[in-house]
Fold:
Amino acid sequence: MLLAFIHAFYSGGVPWDMAAFTMLGVLWGGRLGPFLAQWISPRATKKVFAVIALLDGLVITLQAGYVMFFK
Structure:
């Protein structure tokens, strides 16, 4: 709620077309997460999360490099 308020205050509104997908992801993740936690070991969960975090960091680094050096 705080982030939506800050975005609305500074940018003039909340982009509801993007917020709808975020809300759906939160609902699905909130329902699916506990179910999967029963079937997947904590060690495997940590490994999957680490791989996703590393890939996300790599994508952000590549995008920043592209903006800095090629634009």
About this structure: The first helix runs from residue 2 to 11.
